[in-house]
């Protein structure tokens, strides 16, 4: 027998001195990470999900376990002795996804940089390497932990060898010893190969004995010493069927056992010293090249690991000059510098994150990198030096802050705009917002200053918690020492300025200047004004609506109990599942991860469409209950006591398509199709007798955008002729004159029209329309036959996405789609739907943003007092003075319809009323 490993410390050791050896099954963890983590890529589109998951697992093991020895094993592409013995071995496995192929070299690069040994050997699998290393180490008294979930490896378990799945099936803290292997598989570890010989292994295409499953195999091995003993005494098996199977497939069983048996004597020439692991704090190996690891993580945009492992290097010795302004002379010197600058970064420190009520504590500015100035104005910390009066500071800064010729750079400038406005300052000349620039460059990134500083500058910023604390002991920033806040705030302004200098070239490189400078940046003051203005709600009407809904819910509860035949917790999904499927025996559909019955909306809708009363009533109950809790009862709590209005926050850097979202409260999700959803719109009112609410809503803008982008003749013609596009589609699909289209035909055509924009397939369409998947697919095929230009456009989009890794809107906004070339069917299908939808939805989002900017500019230039209050999807809501109504209406319609030049007519529906519902 060949001595395969030169274990220099090859003598047995006492139990108290035992070392711990961790062997990681590399292939298993790479695949696991790839499938467990979705939609992760760099700003350039490189997929990183497998790398991220693997690195996360590796450093968790290093931190938590602190092993004495560690190695990672990998398979190679070369065939093994198993392939040579059996042609079908692993033949059914799909090829490695393209997005995973790209990541394997990066994972190995991360391991090499980290100083973690890798072992792979042609002709053998990782399992063989694991088995050889584990058994040899055990022989020298070393405790071994194999990190895998591969059931083949369970044959290796012994008193000194255990298996720890570490993240598989949520049991990372679970360790498999001999007892647990027996509990899981019903046989001892030494019989695992016998078990696999009988039952086979579909993941490796090991055939086993057809008709014998894991339970039968375990039962048989409980009666015989091993598989050979079983086959030798097969006539002693009681079941005639099993006897016949064993006789028929005896050779196949023996082959299967050989294929499943791990080789324990692979010729690996390595010393135990090469596998020795010494760790620094935070689990970083002593042999790790931290500089290269930092560079790799920066390339991969792994800010999490840079922060967790504290990899950001000591700052390059650049002297930072942070100044605190206490005297009027110092303030005047700073103002003179600001007057002579082309642009500067600015940041406000306040006592609240709510800009509507926030009070200024101080202001910081930076004119050049590594130097900044802080002007405290209202610190309340006992012992603080004498500060300049806030009125003096505001009066001195106002001319500069309102000078449009001096550029202002900020991080989330919208907040600063709103704070300054409360002090009588109209911040003008905003030239850059680092948060918005980060969003435009890559919507998937984190856009907070701390994350961007780490990514772009390798600089770890002072955490706000260091100043104000956490939890019950948290204070406001104006209660902190001035000098501490000065360093913190100066750093904010300084880093913001440095980031601008790095980000601006990226906007040019990626062709994103139009999106940033013509859309997102000028939209900031528009949103700031909308949020500051807010909207009035009718609290009395809300109260009466809440009482009415409470009665409806009570009535529905009683009806649900009657249909169920018993009382139960309606809000418990488990109890509802028991009623629907165990008691009433309704057809079951989707199961939850825990194995229970799914009672989500989609499942209840299926049952409702099939005519079952209880699911229908439950859907109504849930809809009313959600509206009551989310809006009817919650909206009054959102009223600002100072203004008496609701001030929603518009999130400009959240969605991947470019659409705005809103929060606190979220007004984007108020349902508009149901009568009850419409009722909620009634509560939004004007608080002035001389005003009305005006709603301006794009009509079918996404379909019009699709017609423009696809150049489809039939779809374009429908809009040019101002036809009912849904009736027109129904006419073409069903082959009837448009005047003969009945409501049900139009309904189905409408569902298809909007569904194709989102890449809706036959399965979802069948659920939406309550028809079979066959009929749904027939409708989709008919649609694309009718609108062949749309089909050609979609095919072209997908092709471009595969080539570039991203798609763009009309304005050039990018959406990176890393899964577009995946071999995984579900990931690829999602990516293709994204590629189809983004240019349409994103271009529509750009269009309404451009309209908002132009309308706001016109209102200001004309001196009109009317205000833009809300943006909800394709709709704008205004508070309009009645004497301005005619000219405002005409202007709004004209601007919205021409915000982006399209090849088809754009139509805007306008309504007016004393509340939002009447304005619709």
Structural class: alpha/beta
Do you know the CATH topology of the domain at 15-185 and 263-283? Rossmann fold
- Global geometry: globular
Largest sheet: 6 strands, mixed
User: Percent of residues in helical segments?
Assistant: 40-55%
Give me the number of helical elements: 37
In whole angstroms, the N-to-C terminal distance is 87 Å
CATH superfamily of the domain at 15-185 and 263-283: 5'-nuclease
Strand content: 5-15%
CATH class membership of the domain at 15-185 and 263-283: Alpha Beta
The low-confidence parts are 1-16
CATH architecture of the domain at 15-185 and 263-283: 3-Layer(aba) Sandwich
Provide the gyration radius in Å: 34 Å
> pLDDT average, as an integer?
88
**Spatial order of the strands in the main sheet?**
6-9-8-7-10-11
Tally of extended strands? 21
Describe this structure in words.
The protein is an alpha/beta fold and 920 residues long. Among the domains are: 15-185 and 263-283, 5'-nuclease (Rossmann fold); 321-510, 2-Layer Sandwich (Nucleotidyltransferase, domain 5); 536-644, Taq DNA Polymerase, Chain T, domain 4, CATH 1.20.1060; 702-836, DNA polymerase, domain 1. 48% of the residues lie in helices and 11% in strands. It contains 37 helices and 21 strands. The strands form six sheets. A six-stranded mixed β-sheet has the order 6-9-8-7-10-11, sandwiched between helices. Strand 8 (360-366) and strand 9 (371-376) form a beta hairpin. Helix 15 packs parallel to helix 16. Mean pLDDT is 88; it is low at 1-16.
